[in-house]
Amino acid sequence: MRDVALAAGVSQATVSNAYTGSGRLSPGRREHVFAVARELGYPGPSGAGRSLRTGRSGAVGVMVTDALTFALEDAAAVELLRGIAAVGEAREVALTLLPFPVGVDEAAAVAASIRRGVVDGFLVWSMPDGHPAVEAAAARREPMVLIDGPRLDGVPLVGVDDEAAAREAGAAVLAGGPGGRRGVAAVASDSGPGRVAAGPGGGRRQVPGLSAGGRGQVAAGPAGEADGRQRVAVLVDRLSPDGHTGRVDAARLRAARDQVARERVAGFLAACDAAGAEATVIEAGGFSPRDFRAAASAALEINGVDAIFAATDAVALAALAELSERGVDVPGQVAVLGFDGTAEAARVGLSTVDQPLVEKGSHAMRMLLAAIEHEDPESLLLPTRLELRATT
Amino acid sequence: MRDVALAAGVSQATVSNAYTGSGRLSPGRREHVFAVARELGYPGPSGAGRSLRTGRSGAVGVMVTDALTFALEDAAAVELLRGIAAVGEAREVALTLLPFPVGVDEAAAVAASIRRGVVDGFLVWSMPDGHPAVEAAAARREPMVLIDGPRLDGVPLVGVDDEAAAREAGAAVLAGGPGGRRGVAAVASDSGPGRVAAGPGGGRRQVPGLSAGGRGQVAAGPAGEADGRQRVAVLVDRLSPDGHTGRVDAARLRAARDQVARERVAGFLAACDAAGAEATVIEAGGFSPRDFRAAASAALEINGVDAIFAATDAVALAALAELSERGVDVPGQVAVLGFDGTAEAARVGLSTVDQPLVEKGSHAMRMLLAAIEHEDPESLLLPTRLELRATT
DNA sequence: CTGAAAGCGCTTACAG
DNA sequence: CTGAAAGCGCTTACAG
């Protein structure tokens, strides 16, 4: 910039003003500056210099789950990202997807990685409690907004009441469905190719009014089919990032570091408890479809299992694939319930708890931008809606 | 950092060395520095300062299509991003999704937006020729790798031969399918819930050996069903970013600024031409499912249309939804062919040209990182594979 | 409307 | 193993 100023016969301040377009420059001079810059091959002001000087980078750091690659396999994460991106685009803020060493628990290495990011604030989605990357971000003392988890004192959060939503959804399935709240099954969705997976039992449900009382109302039907399910497998992707796979006991659940997973499982268990159904919690231990399939497979080894409550749609969809491959009738033999309300769930007729994912992202992003402008955004709890479709 | 140095009784260089972990510091001193930093509330070295000093930011700028929000609705873009992210994660490089004013053609505003990014290089996917954001990025003279398009002299590119792949796929469909290359239809895919959309005509195809000769071999079947399709609607999301919607003439196609769209359409048309089938090109003019549905609807108004060749899976899936809603038999009355090979296409049994999207992303990212290290990566053409499934 | 000056926060080459 | 010094590229408050 100094060279351009020299060559153009103006001060460096004038070159800067030409680019920032502050209007503090006569058009003629401005054009002249640009012409000289072009001639010298000056690429325009460097972002690094401007960031250092202004204290603003125009980017926010985004951390999704603890492995970006897996997040991009999860439709729920992508929908959330879409909400974030929409606001970013409108406000011309870049989204910096931050990397950190995966599987490494060395706090120093993770912290260093987070520190490298040139960002004005952080958006954190669904990271485990105490994750070093979150702590490193918090230590930066830059604005931060949490989505779903972890919960951090004094840091605004956007979320839903996962525990209550899971509890109510579980209760509804165990009771045979609450009156009037179910979605329309076996009908083409608007955005997809219109294929709906209605199993043979897809149309059978109790008359709404009759099922309100809770469990014990077993519908007449072929072998094992019942709306009052008795043995539930609760499937969860991960409760804590320690590689555990398979059955989960009460102590492990209590100590779970994944806020959302913990709450949803707790909600499902409360529903089972209230309905007198037996529940087994099985943890996939990872986020790949293969992990999910293995967990579903383990669930089906439970003697007499007649319902699967999955902590996310992704897990539920993998369970459906496993059931389909084994020729198990859904929901005749096994009911399946998801959580998230992804587009894919609607497409295949998966019963689920719908949460406004795109809005979650856009709200969080707006809150973060407000915080960057030194406003003081408040935490926000969004509503959920139970969508009973063909799999329950 | 100066304050920490002062308080710790060391030089600023020593504080810096403590954080960069260069090992040029005795452990005792290092711990002491950290302790003082904690006490003073020093959040660690700022990324902006380090970026300015080292000339590296540790982030690469990513531009996908010309609206991030739409890109995140497209499974193909997300798969590509996953490839990029996997390499970024492994090499600890952040991905900065760059925003630019959408729908604004004011080059100066777009350029300013791109310049703000603190990045070490650019990854560009599927932007229109001459887009001001790409030109602004190129003007920065930082390393750049193009994915699919635009083509820029001297800038390495990762892509496939879209024209040839589309031509061969179109020819195969018009001829009734080449022997031995079709996928397995009506079988559960591995990763999805296993629902496959086999229309009533899903199983009918010519015996491979008989159909090799090309058109004119009309299979016996109900009304209008034929493997030698006669009237093809070629559906494309967008040829140029000017809002055009509906039929496309030769001049518009020739002038198309979206490299990939242009090539795929040209390939489909060449196939129709060779097979003596009549073809009409229809442009959706945007990237939303609604745009795609409208284009599909327009296609179905073509008298006697018996095949839809879509330039992307996303468009083909929207067409399938439209056909399903109208009760049109696929492929009995209308065959549908996509392009991209997304997971969703496999799930619903859509015939498509499969391209290695994840690898495309990971290759491009590796090439960019090599370019940043002053290596000189070469352009790369990846293979495609025709997947004939239930919709043709 | 334009310029001179200061300083944002760091890292590194060099010297000891 | 540690320190003194320089400078990365910019923008802005101030003066004229």
What does this molecule look like?
2 copies of one chain form a homodimer. In chain A, α1 (2-8) crosses α3, α2 (12-20) crosses α3 and α12 (289-299) packs across α13. Chain A is of the alpha/beta class. Chain A folds into 3 domains: 2-45, lambda repressor-like DNA-binding domains (434 Repressor (Amino-terminal Domain)); 59-159 and 358-384, Rossmann fold (3-Layer(aba) Sandwich); 162-355, Response regulator (Rossmann fold). The first copy, chain A, is built from 15 helices and 13 strands. Chain A starts with a helix and ends in a 5-residue tail after the last strand. In chain A, strands 2-1-3-4-5-12 form a 6-stranded parallel β-sheet, with helices on both faces. In chain A, strands 7-8-6-9-10 form a 5-stranded mixed β-sheet, sandwiched between helices. In chain A, α13 (313-326) links the parallel β9 and β10. Residues 178-226 of chain A have low confidence and may be disordered. Chains A and B meet through α4, α6, β2, α7 and α13 of A and α4, α6, β2, α7 and α13 of B. β2 of chain A pairs antiparallel with β2 (94-97) of chain B, so a sheet runs across the interface. Chain A binds a DNA duplex (16 and 16 nucleotides) through α2 and α4.
